Amino acid sequence: MTKRVVLAYSGGLDTSVAIRWMIEEWGVEVVAVLVDVGQDVDGAESFEDIRSRALVAGAIDFVLVDARQEMAEEFCAKAIAANARYENKYPLVSALSRPVIVRHLVAQARRFNAQAVAHGCTGKGNDQVRFEVGTHALAPDLEVLAPARNWGMTRADSVDFAEKWEIPIKATKEKIYSIDENLWGRAIECGAIEDPWAAPPEEPYTLTRVTDREPVELTVSFHEGVPVALDGVAMKLADLIQDLNVRAGATGFGRLDMVENRRVGIKSREVYECPAALALIAAHADLEDLVLERDVHHEKGRLETRWSELVYDGMWFSPLKEALDAFIADTQRHVSGDVRLRFEAPGLLRIVGRRSPKALYDYGLATYDAADTFRHADSEGYVRIYGLGVKTWAQRQGAKNATPPSS
Ligand code: ARG
Fold it and tell me: Per the structure, how many domains does the chain have?
């Protein structure tokens, strides 16, 4: 029986070549699955063109899955709740889309009675890890194939291969950037970006070109940790993200330039543009400042770092990540309210106000004016006992640096 493979298909050069290459080299049947996670930011190509490319390349079938809402409501929403930023910067743009794609690949593999799934990743990146670990978590029986890790072709070789098989591709031999995009933003690698000293070129950015020089003020409303409205207008999360990408991006907000640690031991310089992701995480974190009890808030901060590492490392479907989800979900019960954002070109975001019916901010306790309700006298004994250990230590053993440097 001919082995059947379900390929995560993007429509680009590598996955188009992968279809024909796997047929020729491995004698398999290929079903191409394109998962729409909101990658069609600029509408450059129709899904119909992509479908016909897959079929010309030799796929026995092509499936388009619309996973935009799912990406937003399940994956971006959890990332917002976790204030997820890998290495305190990157909001996991590509890392979040891979488990969505994996879930659909596995579902299609079952539907088509396939024995394997395949991806077009090379051996140097994180995405191979995410595809493979994710697939094995959901379907330990499925094999995962990685043609691009085996074929040993350069980019120019791949273009020649596509020409030989008359696969209509737009790519040229001189590709400059490698770009991965979805609702949550755009990840840009290669070309001039590979020199970490060189300032990133303007040209690969599309979401964050400044077209609006006036300050933009927006209110984001949250319900139990999830953004539900922009300026009072209730929206589905996918639409809210898309809208915010446009409005915040127009002020130039949302760029990141970082050297990051890949799972496979490589440091790489990458740039990102993700206006909605960064703005929503900033707004959400600010609202948490207002509503979370101190110990919960501090502990959550430590676990957020771990959550982001796990998701970056391809562990979306893993017991620790799921256990952390349960903790985070519990903390979100009171994260409801509004946050005021002010964007100023180029690229500045300030949070200028926040409010919540669940706020732990108590005006009477906080104020220094006549409305003060705080019991000042209570502090005397509290502070004495709080500092008692240090005082005893100072009396018996002395502080080393009691004398200021002579001036
Ligand atoms: N370094 C990022 C990550 O591992 C982005 C990778 C995106 N891939 C790309 N072809 N630009 O999540």
Answer: 2
pLDDT tens digits for range 47-63: 899 999 999 999 999 99
CATH code at position 10: 3.40.50.620
Q: Which run of H or E residues covers position 16?
A: helix 13-26
Give the model confidence (pLDDT) of 267-302 as tens digits.
999 999 999 999 999 999 999 999 999 999 999 999
Answer for the pair 118, 143: CB distance below 8 angstroms, yes or no.
Answer: no
SS3 23: helix
As a whole number, the mean pLDDT across the chain is 96
pLDDT at 173: 80
- The residue nearest atom 8 of ligand 1, judged by CA position, is 180
What is the pLDDT at residue 63? 98
Flag whether 16 is in a domain.
yes
In a domain, 369, yes or no: yes
Low-confidence ranges of the chain (pLDDT < 50): none
Domain interval for residue 374: 363-394
Tokens of 217: 């003020």
Mutate-to-test residue for ligand 1 from 100, 126, 256, 315, highest number of ligand atoms within 8 A of CB:
126
CATH code of residue 386: 1.20.5
pLDDT, position 407? 62
* Domain stops at, among 178, 199, 229: 178
- Helical packing angle, 294-312 and 93-111, nearest 10°: 60
Residue 140 Cα to ligand 1 middle (Å): 25
Q: Which of 128, 153, 178 is the last residue of a domain?
A: 178
Catalytic residue among 14, 180, 286, 313: 14
DSSP string, 30-66: EEEEEEESS--SS--S-HHHHHHHHHHHT-SEEEEEE
